[in-house]
C-alpha cells in the first residue's frame, strides 16, 4: 500500500493502523511531490501498490485564497496524476475529501447525494480533486471527513489546549457547526472500506455535531483546565476564507455497508486526549 503526504496528520495515523497487517510505503512530500508528474510516475511504477491512500493535500484554508494556483495544483492536478497511474496499475485509489465541499446551508446532516457547492478556494480545489479521482480511476473511493484531530499533528483541540496554558479566557466561534473526528477512527473506516469493491463517495465523521466553541469547552473540561471559554460569532473573528456554517456529515452509508460502531464525538475526543496523555508519558527519543 502506498500513502502520499506521509508527514501529514492522517497519513501518519493511516500508516500505523495499516502496517500491523499490510506492507505499507509512506512517502512524504520530499520523496513524492504529487504535482511532479514524472516523479509520480516513477515512484508509483516502482512501488506498484495494490492500494493508494492519497492523503497529501494543500490544507491551509486561508492561505489558499491568496495561493489558489498551488491549492489547485496539489489538490486537483496532483490527484489526477496519482489516480491516472493508479488506474493503469489496477490499484484501488482512496482520496480524502472534506465537509468544505458544501456551502453549509443545509439544516441537517450532509449525505453523499447532497450537491457540493464550496464557498472558498480550498473547498473548490478539494471538490475538483474528487472529480479528478472519480473520473481518472475506476476503483476510486472518495471519503469526505471533517474537523480532524489526531496525535500526529497540529489541530484545533491541541491549539486550544496550548492557548489555555497561557490565557485565562478564550473566545471561540459558536456559529459554525460540524462533526469533529478522530483520525484513528477515520483510519479504521478507510481500512474497512478499501477491502471492499464498493467504490464511490462516502462520508465519515464521529456521530453527533457541535460548534467549535462546544468542542473547545469539552476539551478544556476533560483536561480539567481552569481557562474559561466564551462563545462568539464568526463575524467577530473574520477569516480570509469564508467558512461554511453547518456541515455535520452523516456516515450512514458506511454504517449500512457494515462499518461500525462509530463513536460519538465526545467519546472520540476523550480517546484522543487519553492517547495524548499516553504519548506524553513515553520517553522522548
Ligand atoms: N485536517 C482536517 O481537519 C481535515 C478535515 C477534512 C478533510 N481533511 C482532508 O484530510 C486529508 C489529510 O489531512 P491532514 O489533516 O492529515 O493534513 P496535513 O496534516 O496538512 O497533511 C497534508 C500533507 O500533505 C503534504 N503535501 C502538501 N503538498 C504536497 C505535495 N505537493 N506533494 C506531496 N505531499 C504534499 C504535506 O506535506 P508537508 O508536510 O511537506 O507540508 C502534509 O504532510 C487532506 O486531504 C485534507 O484535505 C482534513
Automatic annotation (TrEMBL):
A GO molecular-function term, please?
dTDP-4-dehydrorhamnose reductase activity
Q: What is its EC number?
A: 1.1.1.133
Protein origin, superkingdom: Bacteria
Query: Keyword Disulfide bond on this protein?
Result: no
Give the SUPFAM superfamilies listed for this entry: NAD(P)-binding Rossmann-fold domains
Q: Which InterPro entries match?
A: dTDP_dehydrorham_reduct, NAD(P)-bd_dom_sf, RmlD-like-bd
Q: Which of the seven top EC classes does this enzyme belong to?
A: oxidoreductase
Domain RmlD-like substrate binding, by residue range, is: 2-276
* UniProt xrefs under Pfam families: RmlD_sub_bind
Q: Which UniProt keywords apply?
A: NADP, Oxidoreductase
Oxidoreductase listed as a keyword: yes
Tell me the route in metabolism or biology where this protein functions.
Answer: Carbohydrate biosynthesis; dTDP-L-rhamnose biosynthesis
The record's comment on protein family reads: Belongs to the dTDP-4-dehydrorhamnose reductase family.
According to its UniProt entry, the function of this protein is described as:
Catalyzes the reduction of dTDP-6-deoxy-L-lyxo-4-hexulose to yield dTDP-L-rhamnose.
Question: What name does UniProt use for this protein?
Answer: dTDP-4-dehydrorhamnose reductase
List the source organism.
Marinicrinis sediminis
Amino acid at each position: 500500500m502506498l500513502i502520499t503526504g506521509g508527514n501529514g496528520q492522517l497519513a501518519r495515523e493511516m500508516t500505523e493502523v495499516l502496517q500491523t497487517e499490510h506492507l505499507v510505503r509512506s512517502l512524504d512530500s520530499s520523496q513524492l511531490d504529487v504535482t511532479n508528474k514524472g516523479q509520480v510516475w516513477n515512484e508509483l511504477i516502482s512501488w506498484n501498490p495494490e492500494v493508494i491512500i492519497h492523503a497529501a493535500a494543500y490544507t491551509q484554508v486561508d492561505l489558499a485564497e491568496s495561493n489558489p494556483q498551488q491549492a489547485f495544483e496539489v489538490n486537483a492536478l496532483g490527484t489526477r496524476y496519482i489516480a491516472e497511474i493508479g488506474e493503469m496499475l489496477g490499484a484501488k485509489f482512496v482520496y480524502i475529501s472534506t465537509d468544505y465541499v458544501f456551502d453549509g446551508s443545509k439544516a441537517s446532516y450532509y449525505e453523499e447525494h447532497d450537491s457540493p457547492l464550496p464557498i472558498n478556494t480550498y473547498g473548490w480545489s478539494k471538490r475538483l480533486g474528487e472529480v479528478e479521482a472519480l473520473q481518472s480511476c475506476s476503483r476510486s473511493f472518495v471519503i469526505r471527513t471533517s474537523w480532524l484531530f489526531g496525535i500526529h499533528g497540529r489541530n484545533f483541540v491541541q491549539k486550544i489546549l496550548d492557548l489555555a496554558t497561557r490565557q485565562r479566557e478564550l473566545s471561540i466561534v459558536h456559529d459554525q457547526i460540524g462533526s469533529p473526528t478522530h483520525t484513528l477512527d477515520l483510519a479504521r473506516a478507510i481500512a474497512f472500506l478499501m477491502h471492499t469493491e464498493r467504490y464511490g463517495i462516502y462520508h465519515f465523521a464521529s456521530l453527533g455535531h457541535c460548534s467549535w466553541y462546544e468542542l473547545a469547552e469539552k476539551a478544556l473540561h476533560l483536561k480539567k483546565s481552569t481557562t474559561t471559554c466564551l462563545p462568539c460569532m464568526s463575524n467577530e473573528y473574520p477569516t480570509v476564507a469564508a467558512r461554511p456554517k453547518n456541515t455535520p456529515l452523516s456516515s450512514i452509508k458506511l454504517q449500512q455497508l457494515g462499518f461500525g460502531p462509530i463513536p460519538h464525538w465526545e467519546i472520540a475526543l476523550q480517546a484522543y486526549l487519553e492517547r495524548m496523555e499516553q504519548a506524553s508519558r513515553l520517553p522522548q527519543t
